[in-house]
Amino acid sequence: MAVFCKAVADGLLLTLSLxxxxxxxxxxGNGRGMREVSGRxxxxxxxxxxxxxxxxxxxxNLSEISSIKSSFQLRTFDPEGxxxxxxxxxxxxxxxxxxxxxxxxxxxxxxxxxxxxxGGPKLNDGKWHTLEVSNHGKFVILEVDGSNGLVVGMQxxxxxxxxxxxxxxxxxxxxxxxxxxxxxxxxQMDGCVREGSWLNxxxxxxxxxxxxxxxxxxxxxxxxxxxxxxxxxxxSVSPTEADNEVKIELWGDFSxxxxxxxxxNAPGQELMFALMVNNNTxxxxxxxxxxxxxxxxxxxxxxTIQADSLTVIQEDDESTAIYIFSHPGYLTTWREGRLxxxxxLGEGEDNVGSQFLxxxxxxxxxxxxxLDLDLAVKHMSISSHSCPA
Length: 389
Fold this sequence. Notes:
Keywords: Disulfide bond, Glycoprotein, Lipid-binding, Repeat, Secreted, Signal, Steroid-binding. It is found in: Secreted. GO terms for molecular function: steroid binding. Residues 40-215 form the Laminin G domain. The chain is mainly beta. The protein folds into 2 domains: 23-215, Jelly Rolls, CATH 2.60.120.200; 223-388, Jelly Rolls (Sandwich), CATH 2.60.120. It has one helix at residues 330-336, and strands at residues 5-6, 27-29, 35-37, 43-44, 56-61, 69-76, 81-88, 93-100, 103-110, 113-118, 129-136, 139-144, 147-153, 166-171, 191-198, 205-207, 219-221, 223-226, 231-234, 246-251, 259-265, 273-278, 283-287, 291-295, 300-305, 309-315, 320-326, 338-341, 358-361, 363-366, 369-370, 377-378, 386-388. Strands 1, 19, 21, 22, 23, 24, 28 and 32 form an 8-stranded antiparallel β-sheet that branches. The chain has a 6-stranded antiparallel β-sheet with strand order 4-15-6-11-12-13, with no helix packed on it. It has a 6-stranded antiparallel β-sheet with strand order 5-14-7-8-9-10, with no helix packed on it. The longest helix has 7 residues, at 330-336. The two termini are 28 Å apart.
């Protein structure tokens, strides 16, 4: 996959349409500047914050724990990200459960042991799955939908010690340095957790967020743009193919979208290229050297950038339209520029709120590889891997 580094994004405002949302986590203040949340609440893990920082967390005295089992339900299309974390001894012994390639990954540190194990079924199918993590003597067991997903055995030559003090739990982040883990991964998770039962404790969890973002009641694969922000990639670090061309492909029902689908420019230069769709007129507008407006019947849009030409292909189930623009420097601008998905780059980009995309892009590819919006600088309202169904 072409690797894109994060670029500097402009400050953007969030306005989510509650009509598209299902239910969320409710909470109240605790007098310490944090809101309290029930452990059984439905929590969207992809809410914007420092990407390694927990979304919600709790601390409990080990003497109050009567069960060494935690269970919860998880739903996601995202193949990678942190689910939950726990530790004792202020982070000396710790446990991390995440997904990588859609498969559960457990990493455990205890005394002189550091263990990493991956296995079980793929969970990023958009369905609710019940996960249960429990400790049985020298074994840590992860059950998925009632069946063993992972079993990790650990035995140390060190003398077992009685552990006292506190235990910390966190959802969507970790409380240790990420460099301590054996397996590195992207932490952001576009997913939801609900119905949590955490070590049979009833103490509330805490969050620093002023408001927890709700979860969509039903979802489908794709990247959802609610009309409040866009994702920016730095294309100057994107390698081009040996034949010196770049191909960008987008799939979706464009007749249900409104706003800017995509734009490209280089710093200090005029807008090189943009695609915009109008849901009222059912038209799509292509901005390059010329401006072309056509009827919007698309299921797929493909843009090919070469040294002195740019080709746009509109395609649905029955027909194809091709538009070619000629001008020197297209590929040079790409190599020096930025790619925005869901918004308009260029002069006045601080004031283009009406141009933000509203709708679901089912798939985005660059050079034939899926583009992961988690690798972009993006507005917190964008869901990288799921759309409301």
